Every structure is written in structure tokens, then in C-alpha cells.
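input
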Amino acid sequence: MPPVQLETNQLAPACGPTSGPPHPAPGTGAPVPGTPGVRLSMLIDFLLQRTYHEITVLADLLPRKTDMERKIEIVQFASRTRQLFVRLLALVKWASNAGKVEKCAVISGFLDQQIFLFVDTADRLASLARDALVHARLPSFAIPFAIDVLTTGSYPRLPTCIRDKIIPPDPITKTEKQATLHQLNQILRHRLVTTDLPPQLANLTVANGRVKFRVDGEFEATLTVMGDAADIPWRLLKLEILVEDKETGDGRALVHSMQINFIHQLVQSRLFADEKPLQDMYNCLHSFCLSLQLEVLHSQTLMLIRERWGDLVQVERYIAGKCLTLSVWNQQVLGRRTGTASIHKVHIRIDENDVSKPLQISHEPPLPACDSKLMERAMKIDHLSVEKLLIDSVHARCHQKLQELKAILKNFNPNDNSFIETALPTLVVPILEPCGRSECLHIFVDLHSGMFHPMLYGIDQTILDDIEKSINDDMKRIIAWLQQLKFWLGQQRCKQSVKHLPTTCMEALHLANSLSHPVGSLSKHKLFIRLTRLPQYYIVVEMFEVPHSPTELQYKYHFLSVSQPECDDTPPMALLMQQFKPNIEELVLDARHVKQVKSGDKRKLSGDQNAVEPKKPKRCGEVCAFNKVLAHLVAMCDTNMPFIGLRCEFSNMGIPHQGVQIEGNGCSHAIRLLKIPPCKGICEETQRALERSLLDCTFRLQGRNNRTWTAELVFANCPLNSISSKEQGATRHVYLVYENPLSEPVGGRKIVEMFLNDWNSIARLYDCVLEFARSLPEIPPNLNHFSEIRVYNYRKLVLCYGTTKGSSISIQWNSSQQKFHISLGTVGPNSGCSNCHNIILHQLQEIFNRTPNVVLLLQVLFDTQAPLNAINKLPTVPMLGLTQRTNTAYQCFSILPQSPTHIRLAFRNMYCIDIYCRSRGVVAIRDGAYSLFDNSKIIEGFYPAPGLKTFLNMFVDSNQDARRSSVNEDDNPPSPIGGDMMDSLMSQLQPQQQPYGKQPATSGPYPLTSPPSSYHNTVTPSPSMILAQSPVNIHSANSPSGALRAPSPASFGPNPSPSSLGISLGQPSNFVSPHGSQTVPSNMPPPRKLPQRSWAASIPTVLTHSALHVLLLPSPTPGLVPGLAGSYLCSPLERFLGSVIMRRHLQRIIQQELLQLINSSEPGVIMFKTDALKCRVALNPSTYQTLQLKVTPEITGSWIPDELQVLEKFFETRVVGPPFKANTLIAFTRLLGASTNILRDCVRIMKLELFPDQATQLKWNVQFCLTIPPSAPPIAPPGTPAVVLKSKMLFFLQLTQKTSVPQEPISIIVPIIYDMSSGTTQQADIPRQQNSSGAAPLMVSNILKRFTELHPSRPGECTIFPAVHDLMANLTLPPGGRP
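output
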């Protein structure tokens, strides 16, 4: 109901006010507006929502309570809701007249307010008449004044006293003002001329009728006269004190305004009384200003003592208005109490004899006449700063002290070049000529204390403290210190000169034999420079004084070698010390001259006087501080000594070489080896071939730190031609780089050992490459097209192989492990993918180290690439829920390589398959659970796979099947083959077996069409080993697998005939001969069907590579409609093994579920029965990839064939299909054990799942959940069997909404419980998760409850399917909602 409009800004709510409007306060104007209300429609909406919410809460909570509690809750809810709506009804009835009531209330309030205003007005008027107007009177009426105002508009009768005070006189004009001021200026000038004027007041200005006297730093006074008579006194108009304290005054005035007024009155009184008024005025103001200046200086001194100077300045005496005495450089106060303490004083006073003078400055003792400017600054204080005065004073005294110190230096050295800087009192003393500014000794004089402070860059502070103490006690001691600093500076110059070089400088070296060695007789001023990269070598710099030259030094250089200590605590011993030639400077210059002549005009050295590009001038002293002779010696030793050390190591190890040679116009050095020692384990022929191909071996040192050695090997006549563009020349350059360890000297034994190891690696690989190169002309064509040489750089051989050459294998010798190292990879378009041979990498490396033959390795890669590509497609990811232990993960396939050609596949840790890769594009497959040595024994941990032999034979091609003979149907062990048949068989197969073995008279390494003898058997196989050999003889004794060395089981008993081994020799394929097919012997028996034998799978089955791909690659399940097959694609082998493992689980489940097992004479068939059905489970005989269920009812006619077919098809596609979970079988067997009516309804639900297109009128698709899905209510762990059959039946359904638009369908899990006693079908009351929505379960529960109410169950009927069908037809989720 909309609100009613009452006034302009007042709205009455629909529900009406609860009470009348309040009375307004006294004095207020407009009435108070009504309280804002709530719309009636909104109030009704709130009540309905609250009621619906309470109903929803009751629906969720009441099912969990007892019947009595439910009734109580319902009664309470009804009572509350009734009272609430009764109130709402009363409110609605009252709201119909709410507008009239509101209008009346407003009118009543307005009338009450008006009554209050009338009463208040009467009260106020009565009070005014009784109190205020009793004594009020009016004057006589001013009739004349009124007539004037009314007639003339003016008021001429205003009294004079009022007019004179209010109305100002008329001002004078501007011209009159200028004339008056000009006349007054003339009067002032005449007065100044005729008056006795003090000379200090000469700075005056006359303007605007005033005269202004200014005395800088003291005061400024402005005067005038009040007339032109001579006896009229001066009038002081303005007085300003100019004394300022810029340091401590903080910008404030020093004199208070009241003080200025007092002085103003005092000066004015003097101007009235005295005969010389201006003189008296000056004396008065000048005396005050001097006293004020003295007070300011005293205040500054106290602040200076308190903040900065402390005891360094003291106030000796202060008399206000007279004098101020300060003392500085008081040695007793500074703590130096030795000797006579000198005190320097500064006196500031007012001259009593002549008061007109400014403040007078005097010094005690008097300042020396050293510098007129310094003297002049120290005798003035016009700046009014006591600190500046003190600084000027001590500055002059510092200059005097430095002059005395300079005189001492001049007496010692007449050629002294020291000088004084006046800006900051400093004496700059050169120590070692020529000397830069940074190398000079700077001696400062502290302005506060007058003490000498020396400063020298780079020296220890303790030495500076000692120098300071010495020269302050006695200035003559500076001479001895300069001599010491000269040697120190010489050492510093040497250190700076070699700072950029790899050296370590030390002033002392502890040697075990220093007393007996010449190194102990060196002078005390020396420096040891250790070569960092050659720690056993030192350069010793010895320094001497030059006579009659106090600022020069003489250097001597020595080369020192020491022994390396065995431990850190033992000092080294000096071995050899030799002095460098004294004319080393000339040699340096000669070497530069030679280089300049060789280089011509293209490169100008820095030492050339005729250089085209002149050097920029450097700062004074910088060039002299660099000892170029020492730097040249260090650089020369650092460059040459590593080669000398390497040369000595070569000589000690007996390696001939040419010594150290200079290359590149003297820019580099090198060592060439004449012969490299032979390697162990290399034949002489390979060694000689490698030596003949080696043209040069050179060692060079490179890198910024000179710790990297490079050995350049030049080879010719490379045995292999690769496809690399860098390896197409006549010679091959191989660079071996060695990083010298920090703990080893550069050029030590470690480098030689690393080189010999690399040379051994080159020789080992070269041996294999030579043999490979000899075999290339005779290599089989298939291997020639299969591989190519990508890189051979004498250290590594890289081969690319495959149909697209996308896989690569790298071979190189590992010196540390003393064996070949193989690495696999991919190149080209396959780059980034995994190499299929990675799973047998370890086995490939082992076989190559046993037989380092590249052709054999390529043959293995060729035979195994296609099988490994198929094996790599098998799933190896662990999966949960495969067994009853739902939390245990089992790996589907485990790939276990036994040798390069023997791969073992373990399926879920139960079944084992052995795959043997053979030549000619075939593989042999057997059941790996059987022992290789005895078919009657099983390997521990594995189980035989029944029917494996029959399953594998389905993948043998037609040609292969023609060669397979039948198996004897007798259960006894197979008998040996007859002699006549064996003779004919051997006569036909003998020529075909010859290419596999190596001919004894063959001169080449291998025949043209056969691989190496180490890969295939070199002996003609026996009849028991033809084609499909026994398990032990899959590989020969020399096979790369290296694992099968025991004799055949046939050696312990009668040999089986070829027919008993499942071999048909009718039409041999390429597996037998590469030359095509041959005729079948006439005496061979016809092929027969292979029967089931427990040991048959131990006999290998030969498959082609294409058949192996079909066997191992994922594919759809054969024989099933694509709609019925599951979405999980798997390989035929996985389907077969999964079916076998499910059949094994079924035998165990039948016993657990108390079903009756029926004995069956058929192998691989399981028969059992329930109360109503007889079941037969067996592998599909046409594919062996699925389990099939055949159901027969106990009572004929109780089941229709369509229902039985649905049950059988559901078993085949949903129960025992991928991913082969045991718990699905448990749930299905529980369903089979249910009563007939329950099972029939479940079968009808299964039909809706298998054929969803037949139920077009339903809104949902259904799926029977045999295991609990992860999204189900948390009643049990996911993967648990989802069917429970006791007094009540619990099962789960997954409903998926049908949708016509392309979007993700909505799926919900419905737990259904069927009560067998009452026949009701309801949703199981399972608590949901906190974050799950309850809309869908609530709607499902309501639909099932409504179905139960509308369709009560009858005896003997099951309501499962009707209830589910009704649910699928009527369930509708809200739009946009999720379950």
C-alpha cells in the first residue's frame, strides 16, 4: 500500500503511527514531522520469507527427531505463525483509517502551538508594561530642527562642540605639502651647518623634512625641528639600534621596545637641555652601543664554550661596559702539563680615554708580523663575532708555527720543496721526490689547541699518533720521521705498482733457513711479492738510501724460490735467490723499441716520443708513483714461470717437447709436444694410427687470470666423415681446456695428468672408431639407412638413428670411471621428446663396455627401436582403487629391462611378460612367471597368465601362423621329433642359418648381411632351438642380455618336437630368411588348433613389430559397440591381463559372498549359481580381451531373454571392463545374490544406462555406480563397493542431466535405500559436506517421498525401478543452480 501524502514533506507510513506526534518545544516554529514508517508490502514480504525459512529449517531438522518432538515443533511453529499473522491482520485493518488519524493529529498539534504563541505574547507585553515603561519619558519635540530637515534636507543647527570633534578640517593640498617639506629641508640643512656636528655623524641624509644620522653597527636616529627659529630644539622622531648578534640572537632584536622608548626619552631630554645636543646624543648612544657589543661578545663566548670549543677557550675577566679578556691554547687545560705552559690571551675593551672610538683589540703575547692581511683581520671586530676573531687570531699564530717548522726542514735539506697553504694552516712536505700531492705529508695546526696534526694517506693511525706526539714535544724530531716515512712510501709505491697483477705483498717472510740462507742478509727495508698463481716464487724488493739526497731511494730486485710446505704449520724453506740485472730499465726500453720497429706505424707505444696521439697530462706525482720496472718483472715472471713449470713437469714425466717458444711477435708463449706417451689398454696398431694422424700438440695459456690452459691437437686423416659442417676440412683441430685448480700451482702435475686422461679418452674412442670405419663398407644396408654419423670430434661420437634420424646416441670415454659413457637424446623435429631407448640406457652402456663395437650397438638399436616405441606407450602411472585396498596405489605396467633385448613387463605386480627383441623385425614373447630353467617352477611373486599363449597367437600374421604347428593334445610332456623329419627339416634350414654366423675364413670384421657374432649364436641351432627356441635359448651365450647362460630344460629330458613348441614350418617368412619365402616340406603335418596347456605360455611366441604395436597400443575394445565401450582406452594386452586378473578376483569373491561354486571341466571357465540364476564366466573366445557372462535361469520362464542379455552386456562392459577394479565385481555379485524382483529392477536400470537413447521422455541419464564415486556423500572411502544388501538395500546412482546446448552437463549422486520389508524406495539420509548445496538432495527426497505416497507398494513388488524412473522424469533443478 503506498504512503499517503499529508503535506509537502511529510509522509504517513502505511502501517500508521504508533502514537501522536510529540508537542513542539517552546519557541519552535514548524511542527515536528511524523516518524518515518515501513511500507506494508515490504512488511508482508518479510513475514512470508520468515515463515518459509522456518518451514525449510523444520524440513531439514524434523527427520532426525522422534515423532513426539516433531509434533511439538510443528505445534509451536503453527502458534508462532498464527500470532504473527493475526497482528498483521489487525495492522492492515487499522491502516485503512491511518490517513485521517494522521491529519487530525497534525491539526491538533498546530493549534496547540498557536495557543502557546498567543499566551506567550500576552505575557511578554504585560511584563514590558509593568516593568520597563513605568519610568519612560519623551523630550520636548524639536520642531525647528524638524522643519529644517523636512524643508531644506539639512541639519544646520548642530552644536559647535559636536561639529569640531566629529567633522575634521579640510586637508592641505599636495602642492602645499611639497612646498612645506622643501622649506623644512632647507631649515634642517641650515641648522646642521650652523651646529657643532661630531665627525662620527657625518653619514646623514636629509629628506622629507627629516635628517637621518646612521652609524654602522651602532644606531640610526631620525630628527627634525618644529620651526625655523634657531632656539627651537631638535625633535627625535625615531631611534633604531643596529647592533645585531647573527650567531646567538636567532634573528631577534637585542633591545626591547620599552628600553628603546626609555633611551628615546633620555636622548630627547638631552636634546632639550644641552648646548651641544647632537654631540651629547652621539655620546649617549655610542656608549650604550659599545656596552651592548661587549655584552654580545660575552654571550657568544659563553655559547662557544658550551657548544663547540669547551675548555679550549676561557673567559679570564669580564667587566660589563668596560672589557672582556679571553684565553686560548692553554696547554695546562689541554692536558699537556710538561714544560712551561704558554697562555695566549685576547683583550676586548672600551677606550676610556676616547669614548668615541670603537672596541679595541689587543693580543698577549703580541702577534708576529708575518702577514699583514692576517694581522689586519685579527685586530678588527667590526663583524661582531668572537669566534671569527679567535680564528683570525689563532690563524696568524698557526702560520707562525708552520714557518718555524719549515725553517727546520730547510736547514736539514737545502733543496726542500715544502710549502704552506694559508687557507687552512697546512705545511705540505714531499717525502719521496718526485712526489704527488696524495703522497705528501700534510701537517696541520689545530686552530682550537695549536697542536700539530700530521696526515698521510694510507698510513696506520697509530704511526700518525706517534708522529704527532713527537713533533709537538720537539719539532726537530720531524727529520727522523721523514726518513722512516720515505721507506714506507717506497713500499707503498711497490704495492700499488703490482696491485693490478696477481700478487700478494708482505713485508716479512718466515723461512725455516733464513739464518743460513742469503735471504737473511738483506736490508731491513724490503718487500716480498708473492706470485699468486705461482705460490713457490717471490720477487724481493730491497730499498736503500741515496747519499746527499734525503728524498730519494735506490731499489734492488731479487728472484726467490721456496719449497712448498707439506702442512700449513711448517714454514717454507728458501731454495734459490738471484738478483736481477741492474740495467733492467734499459732492457725494458730496448724491448719496447724492438716492438715499435716490428709493429711499424700502425701501433704507437706509450713510450714513443713521436707518437701520433699524445698522452693526456696526468696529475703531478701519479706517474712517478708507478714502479714500471717492478711491474715489468712481475708480469714477466707471471707469464713465463707457468710455462717453465709445465716444461719441467713434461720433462719429469718423460714427455719430449720443444721447450717454451714465443709466438705472435713476442705476444704469447707456447709449448709443443714431440710425442705423447702410449696409452694402456690400446693395441699397437691403433696407437700407431693415432700417432700418424696427430700433426701437432701445443699448450697455451689464456684467460684473464692466466689459469686456463688450452691444448690444441691437430689431426689429419680422420677415419669418419660426419655431416657436421665444422668437420669437413682436411685437418681437425681439437681444443682441450683445463682450468688450473686454485690449490695447485699454474702449470703443475695436475694439468699433465688431466691431459693424459683426455688423451687416453681420445685413444679409447679412436680404437672403436677405427673398427667402425673398417666395418662401414660391409655394414648391412638396413643399418646403413638406419643411422648416420652426426659428430666425431675425437672426444665424442654422436650417431643419429631412426627412420627420420630423430634419435641420437653419444659415446665417449669417462676417465674417472674408466669406461665408456653413453647418453641418449633427440634432434630435429623430435627435439624435446624422450628417446625410447632411455629405459635400456644402463644395459646399452654395459654391453658396449663389454664389447665396444659400434656396429653391434647399432644392431641392438635397430632391433629394439620399434618394440621400445610400443612399450613406451604402456601406462605406468599408479592408480587407486584397483583392489579392495582402495587407498593403496598399484602401478599398471612396470617396465623392467633385463638386457638390451630383454624387456620384462610386470602387470599390477601379479603377471609378468617377457619380450625378447630379435632380428628381422620380430620379437619373442613368453610368460615371465615361469622359470627360465624349469617350466614346472613359478617365479616367486608372479602368477602364470592362463590363456596367454592362445591370446598371443591371435596376433601372429598369416605367414607366421602358417609356420606354427599344432600342439600335441596329450597332457604328457612332448616327445622328440622323428629322425627322418628332422633330417629333412635340417637340410632345408641349414642354408638359411649360415648368414647368422660368422664364417671362419672371412677376412672382414663381419659378413655383409650378418651382425657381429657376439649378438647372434654362431653355432647352428639344434632341432630343439629352431626358430621358436626354448626359453633359455632365446639369446645365445654371447647375447647382449648376458643373463641367460643355463642350458635348456630340454637338456634334462626329451627334447620337444617343433610341433610341440607351437612352431609351424610350412611357410617361412622373413624371420627365417631375408631372401623371401620357401616351399613347405611335403612331410610336415597340417596345423591344428592349439589347446590349453599350463606350460604353453612359457614357450615364446614370435610376433612382428607391427603385431607388437597392435598388441601394446591403446585401441577400442573389439566386438563392442562404441556406445557400450567405456571411455578408458587401453591396449589389447592390458585388456587380456585385466580380464585374467578379474577372473582371478571372481574366484575369491564367490567364496566371500557365499555363492555356490560349480565345478567345471572346461579350463578357464568359472561357474556358480545363485537362488535364481546359474552363471558361467569365461574369456571371449574370439578376442580373449573381455570376460563374458552367460546367465541361465533356474526356473524356465522367470526371466525374459532381453533382461538376461542386458545383464550379460552390463557385466562385460561395466563390471569387468577397464580399468578392471575388483570392487566392481564385489558389488555386481551382491546384486546377483539379491531376490528376483530386486535384481529385475536393477537390470531395468542397467538397460537405461546401456541404451540411454531408448528413454527419450526422461530428463536425466542414469549410471549404476558399482563403487562409491568421490563426489558421493561421505559414507565410505571412494572406491568402496557401492552395493550393500542386508535387510535393506543401499546402492548409488549417478544422474546426468540431458541438455541440448553445448555445455557441461549437471551430474548428481543419489544414494538410494530400499526397505525390503515395507517395499519403500527413499533417498538415504547421509550427512552432506558443509560446503555442498542441499537443494538437489532435498528435491530428490521430496520426489521419492511423493512417489511413495502416491504409489504404495504391494506385496511381492519392487518399487526401485518405478521410483527411479519417476525421479528421472520429474526432477528439475532451478535454473542456473548447481547440485
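quick obs: The chain has 30 helices and 44 strands.
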